[in-house]
Amino acid sequence: MSCGEKLAEELRRKGFRVTPQRGVILETIAHMGDHLSVQEVYSEARERLPGLNIATIYRTLESLHRAGMVDLFYPGSGPTRFTLRDPSAAHGHLVCTECEHVVDIDTDLIGRLVEEVAAETSFFIDPHHLTLLGICDACFQAGRGKRKIS
Amino acid sequence: MSCGEKLAEELRRKGFRVTPQRGVILETIAHMGDHLSVQEVYSEARERLPGLNIATIYRTLESLHRAGMVDLFYPGSGPTRFTLRDPSAAHGHLVCTECEHVVDIDTDLIGRLVEEVAAETSFFIDPHHLTLLGICDACFQAGRGKRKIS
DNA sequence: ATATTAAATGCAAATCTTTGCAACTAAGAA
DNA sequence: TTCTTAGTTGCAAAGATTTGCATTTAATAT
Known about the structure:
2 copies of one chain form a homodimer.
Chain A: H1 3-13, H2 20-30, E1 36-37, H3 38-48, H4 54-66, E2 70-73, E3 81-84, E4 92-96, E5 102-105, H5 107-121, E6 124-125, E7 131-135, H6 137-141, H7 146-149
Parallel strand pairs in A: 4-7
Antiparallel strand pairs in A: 1-3, 2-3, 4-5
Helix pairs in contact in A: 1-2, 2-3, 3-4
The structure holds a DNA duplex.
């Protein structure tokens, strides 16, 4: 069973319908890596299924998001991006506002952050949703972070 | 000196120009409270300065952001929102993806999160940029969070 | 005061994202 | 298989955001 078919099955299991459009979109994002924009998926998927409408991409991504299968995140600038969720490991993103570099945060650290916030605020952070903006080490060393840290 | 004038001075001090448009925008957001959308500021500010263009609002907000005077954040849905930064107290936002309620995170907790992430990843989170999505206590109690926490 | 210039504005066009609605169809029931 | 229906699609329009460019102007120097 291909990666796309596995995703299709998971989507169906969560109560969503699997249409040809969604099949193509799933197959596409399963092979395109992380941090995709809607436009990127659109131009790729439309080659496999001409006539595919971009509104369908947006709506499918929202469904996948509601199904807990992809996470959206907002880099400091530019369009929204998203990634396939790895169910075995929650992960978040650290986005450097200087160089736009994206680093993943691992499960353990996320778990600790979630606990810490929950203990103090009774608020349960969604561990798959975490996007933190800041300055990466390289930019900080280069002094490019000073202005922002202030 | 009015709130708006203080902000204008701060902006000038950071190397940005203070135009009549910016004066009006600053005076406006100084009196409109937190979590504003661009459209909200636009309709308010345009009453004080007819002819003001919405692109100017976007660009001014970006400048204020670069100057470290406002923070942008993305609630789960709907347009981007922003708040005047309180220089004395870094604060972040917890946005409930069920009821859209926004809770502020206080300085101390933020400080600890920043340290924790920095220790492990050499990445310095901007403490003024923190927006975390999740489930608030009320929605969690009501069982509305189950689907998302999965 | 006047001149200088980099930054900011307004406008229009481009791009990105969301939404209403009629037509279509996947998935389950009969 | 056929029926049923709620979920999904395409399309077009609306809404949100960004960008290029000619013009204007705030801040600084003269």
